[in-house]
Amino acid sequence: MNVVRYPETYLKAYSKGHLMGTHTWSHKFLPSLTNEQLVAQFEWSIWAMNATAHHIPKWYRPPYGAIDDRVRAVARAFGMQAVLWDHDLVDWGMEASPPIRTKQRILDDARRFKAEGKGGLSLEHDAYASTVDAAIEVSKIFGADQLTVAQCVDSIDYIRRY
């Protein structure tokens, strides 16, 4: 979620206990950036989150899942750890032109992922009303035993809260 564009929504999600991590400032392909650009991507997003909800995130999801050792090193300098996923529902495909995914297919894939019984992280997006709607339905499919990333790896939620 874009914390600068939707600060009230961000605060509401945070106050309800949702684990808030960063997806970087402007969704760039991180391995292609210079060190200075990488620092800016992390620093600006951390600043926005801290200014809005008074916390410093521990977790980040690299755009496109693109990560290399240099990106990891820069993130570690901020105390951050990457989060990747085990299952991609390709929900953004509902908004592709032409669409390459339907809500029904996303829900069917979520049911199949749950039925496998392996657990893991599922990738969904909040950029469109259609993907948010699908994510709510996916959450219902997965049920009440969902965990935050921090709970999955037995770690802290945030580096610092004020």
Automatic annotation (TrEMBL):
GO MF annotation list: chitin deacetylase activity; metal ion binding
Essential cofactor(s): Co(2+)
Catalytic activity of the protein: [(1->4)-N-acetyl-beta-D-glucosaminyl](n) + n H2O = chitosan + n acetate
PROSITE patterns: NODB (PS51677)
Cited SUPFAM superfamilies: Glycoside hydrolase/deacetylase
Example of a GO cellular component annotation carried by this entry: prospore membrane
Domain of life per record: Eukaryota
EC numbers: 3.5.1.41
NodB homology domain segment(s): 1-159
Pfam family name, one: Polysacc_deac_1
InterPro entries: Glyco_hydro/deAcase_b/a-brl, NODB_dom, Polysacc_deacetylase_ArnD
EC primary class: hydrolase
Single GO BP term: ascospore wall assembly
Sorted UniProt keywords: Carbohydrate metabolism, Chitin degradation, Cobalt, Hydrolase, Metal-binding, Polysaccharide degradation
Entry protein name: chitin deacetylase
Organism from which the protein derives: Brettanomyces naardenensis (Yeast)
